[in-house]
Specification:
Elements: H1 8-14, H2 19-22, E1 66-67, E2 71-78, H3 97-100, E3 108-117, E4 120-127, H4 132-135, H5 155-164, E5 166-174, E6 180-182, E7 190-192, E8 198-202, E9 221-223, E10 228-233, E11 239-243, H6 261-266, E12 298-301, E13 311-313, E14 325-328, E15 333-339, E16 343-345, E17 347-355, E18 371-378, E19 383-388, H7 405-410, H8 412-419, E20 424-425, E21 427-432, E22 439-443, E23 474-479, E24 489-497, E25 523-528, E26 534-538, H9 544-547, E27 553-557, E28 567-572, E29 578-584, E30 590-596, E31 634-640
Parallel strand pairs: 8-13
Antiparallel strand pairs: 1-28, 2-31, 3-4, 4-5, 5-6, 5-7, 8-9, 10-11, 11-12, 12-13, 14-15, 15-17, 16-20, 17-18, 18-19, 19-24, 21-22, 22-23, 23-24, 25-26, 26-27, 27-28, 29-30, 30-31
Bound molecules: MU-OXO-diiron and calcium ion (3 copies).
Length: 647
């Protein structure tokens, strides 16, 4: 059973004296959380004592992107760029799966970097999902995640979608002018797709009967990776990619009374958002009831070896992995933080059994196959515990249907339910700060959190998720004892509660110094620069007009000192896009920002357009702005005009 939540009264009583209470959320006059902004809507520089020194840009929405004055924003990589040697140039009117499998994929999400030297390195990029109504001529708007309107889809279009999913590895280099570009025909350039890439299975679930299918009777070799959202880089330079909403790709009905029925239901399978099952039977539950168990993992890719098979690391658990950022424990064990992005799901970390070997790279190859997965319980007094998800411990026994550790990992969510972990407001990126040792957790929103607990799987507010109908999200800061990422206890605090500080009913929490442009809603991807400063990208989805009224963007956020909890707006996305893939290259003189799904989310609410986008009639043609060219998800490279450090 999920643990009982304390009442709001208990919570208030136990948290007296904590910063959160002092600043007002749980007090009756919640507006005390912040004074109305002292600054107008115009851009301004950062105040005395700030760690940031750029001139803030303004909230707003239009068809292109904006960055703070004094910065360059170059389009580095676009959907369709011919990255693999011999790939054809992108032609939106003549797309093919064969071409797409060698071109940069759709909807760039996480961006990681493996440096080769000071001016060259390998960019590792996720391609999360596809939007056929805006990618292909003649495909009408569909209702996302609902089974409708695949009438115009064909096998070729579905396979273009499959080839546009997955990951890219692309060599990039810095020119004499300080600008970065991708390297044509580099031997490292590679696509990993949902269509054709063979992926090995590692860890306790490898070969398990529940992972076996007719195409793979050994349960060790999976075609493709899907819905690759955020990720992380390991200390040995490999790329971890999280499989997030894998349920959308499955259709059909399980055979009557099938043993996987409850498991699939807990993960929302079948999600029926795509019609790939019409052409590839493995996505049809009637044909392959175990296929969904082969997705929802973290996949490890070695960008330095284009011939190496990626590996699904099952020891890290199966859920809707948002990301997989790593840190080293004091004793050299490797820790991977990962959120399960679903309303009322959980925050996890994995601690390896072995230690990172800095002198012999190959010794780290299978480090992520053995270790302990934990799920977080946030206690009302500001402490918390990491609960081990280990077969045989507590309720994780045969009596509850877990025969072995593989069962526990395949059904990570149910295991976490039984352990009494804290049901969170959609955990997105989790970012350990390598300078301070603190860890930042983006809880993006949860408009379904009720005022009061009526069912145990949808509890009312708790201290770590303090707002009912949380449309705006918040950022929690976790502190490890002695800065040790392997510790099983932690303390936590609220960094910001997002949303408009000038609307009392929002119960936002920002530092008073935050300007009219410095606040944001729906934190998603985050990055820490090499000076240890936090940057947050947002994803409001179609709700942007309600949650903030501005397009998504990137904000710098103070985490220390008197300005803690102050945001500064640095970058703004074009209409309909969310921000992913914020990453600082070594030295902080270059920063990537992945702009995902331009022209798609909530464009109907943008008055100058006021309708849904299609291929022929998109809300924006960012970034090319050429007739006939649809909007293209792209990675933007930010540099300073004077070559200095960003921010
Ligand atoms: Fe793919 Fe949770 O964002
Ligand atoms: Ca995300
Ligand atoms: Ca991140
Ligand atoms: Ca999101």
């Amino acid at each position: 059973m999920p643990h009982k939540n304390p009442t709001l009264g208990d919570i208030i009583a136990r948290r007296v004296g904590r910063r959160d209470l002092l600043t007002g959320l749980l007090a009756t006059s919640a507006v005390a959380a912040i004074a109305p902004s002292a600054f107008g809507a115009s851009a301004k520089g950062s105040p005395e004592g700030s760690r940031f020194s750029f001139e803030e840009i303004a909230h707003g929405v239009d068809e292109t992107h904006h960055v703070a004055q004094g910065y360059r924003s170059d389009i580095l990589l676009r959907w369709g760029d011919p990255i693999v040697a011999g790939a054809p140039e992108f032609d939106p009117a003549a797309q093919s799966a064969a071409a797409q499998a060698r071109q940069f994929g759709y909807n760039n999400d996480y961006v990681g970097y493996a440096p080769i030297d000071a001016t060259r390195g390998l960019l590792c990029v996720n391609h999360e999902y596809t939007a056929p109504e805006i990618m292909f001529p003649g495909v009408k708007q569909r209702q996302r995640a609902k089974e409708t309107n695949f009438a115009a889809m064909t096998k070729e279009l579905a396979e273009i979608e499959m080839a546009a999913h997955g990951c890219s590895v692309v060599e990039i280099e810095k020119g004499a002018d300080g600008r970065w570009s991708w390297v044509r025909d580099s031997r490292y350039n590679r696509r990993i797709t949902a269509l054709a890439t063979e992926i090995r299975v590692g860890g306790p679930a490898a070969g398990h009967p529940r992972l076996r299918t007719s195409a793979d009777p050994a349960g060790t070799n999976i075609i493709g990776t899907i819905n690759n959202c955020a990720g992380g880089m390991t200390p040995w330079g490999t790329f971890l990619t999280g499989e997030e909403n894998f349920n959308y790709y499955f259709r059909g009905k399980l055979p009557e009374g099938h043993l996987e029925a409850a498991n699939h239901k807990r993960y929302g399978v079948p999600g029926s958002g795509y019609n790939w099952a019409d052409y590839h039977g493995r996505f049809d539950l009637a044909t392959e009831p175990n296929e969904p168990n082969r997705f929802g993992w973290v996949v490890e890719i070695d960008p330095s070896d284009p011939a190496a098979a990626p590996v699904k690391r099952t020891a890290l658990g199966r859920f809707k992995h948002e990301g997989a950022e790593t840190a080293l424990a004091k004793d050299g064990r490797v820790v991977v933080y990962s959120g399960d992005d679903e309303r009322f799901d959980y925050v996890y970390k994995f601690v390896s059994e072995g230690r990172f070997n800095p002198s012999e790279r190959a010794a780290n190859r299978d480090l992520l196959d053995r270790g302990t997965l934990y799920v977080a319980r946030f206690d009302p007094d500001g402490s918390g515990e990491w609960l081990p998800i280990v077969h045989g411990a507590g309720k994780l026994t045969a009596a509850n249907g877990f025969r072995d550790q593989a069962d526990v990992l395949i059904e990570t969510r149910r295991a976490a339910d039984l352990l009494g972990a804290t049901r969170m407001d959609r955990p997105e990126d989790i970012e350990p700060n390598p300078v301070t040792g603190k860890v930042y957790i983006a809880l993006t929103n949860n408009e379904r959190r009720p005022e009061k607990t009526e069912r145990p799987d949808q509890p009312g507010p708790d201290p770590a998720n303090p707002r009912a109908k949380n449309e705006w999200g918040h950022v929690v800061e976790l502190t490890n004892p002695d800065g040790d990422h392997a510790a099983t206890r932690f303390s936590w605090d609220m960094l910001v509660r997002c949303g408009d500080p000038n609307r009392p009913e929002v119960h936002a929490l920002w530092n008073k110094a935050t300007s009219a442009n410095g606040w944001f809603a729906c934190p998603d991807n985050m990055a820490i620069d090499h000076q240890g400063r936090l940057w947050v990208g947002t994803d409001q989805g179609s709700a942007w007009s309600k949650t903030s009224g501005t397009a998504d963007g990137v904000w710098a956020v103070e985490t220390e000192g008197p300005l803690r909890g102050t945001g500064w707006m640095f970058f703004r996305a074009p209409v309909g896009a969310e921000i992913c893939g914020c990453l600082f290259l070594p030295g902080d003189t270059a920063m990537t920002i992945a702009v995902q799904h331009p022209g798609i989310d909530g464009v109907k609410q943008w008055a100058p357009f006021g309708r849904e986008s299609t291929f022929d009639d998109p809300a924006t043609r960012w970034p090319d702005f050429k007739p006939g060219m649809p909007p293209r998800p792209s990675v933007v490279m930010i540099t300073r005009q004077d070559g200095g450090k960003i921010g």
